[in-house]
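Quick check before the chapter quiz. The format below is the same one you will see on the exam, so make sure you can read both the input and the output lines.
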Amino acid sequence: MASHTEENYLKTLLALSGEKESVSLSDLSHDLNVKLPTANSMVKNLKNQGLVNYEKYKPLSLTPKGRRSAALILRKHRLTEMFLTTVMGFGWEEVHAIAEQVEHIDSPVFFDKMDEMLGSPKTDPHGSPIPDKKGYMVHPAFVPLSECKAGQTVIISAMLNDSAEFLMLLNSKQLSLGTEISIDSIEAFDRSITISYNELNNITLSEKVSQQILVTVIK
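Here is the expected output.
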């Protein structure tokens, strides 16, 4: 059984490898907010367990065993977030920190029961895919709202940013998964976007915000 710290390293490596073609030790230490020697020591430990490919001065990567282990940790995290929102009534901005703790519980039957109660959901409350029991997950072909064009109609499908601050901003604008949006205009100077949805019109989002919202284009 991996320690909590080892599991955090694996999950972080999985996330970073999805964003970049290669992951350096400095990338990993920066993301985990630990010193390079600390990260180096842990990565050597994970290599010895057959979870990470690592050679000095070369990029890091997860082995197939390590990728599956990381995906199963992510599965526990995202199932927990879904359970907290749909069964317990937490807001989507409240669940990440709780799931960070619950994901370290080593009880497959516990999470299998959670999955069963939820009806085996494919995504978490933020639209991110939930890995299956084998660690496999499908990444839907969503596009950032920032890449869409004026005149298009889209549906909010997922979030790249699931921080409480970002989700509370969306709450204040009454934006959530499934919201259908009409893109009214895009400012040429700063790429801010003006949208309409539900009963609200001419709502402006900065490019920074629209970059974090993933959508499905419907027309």
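If your answer matched, good. The mean pLDDT is 94.
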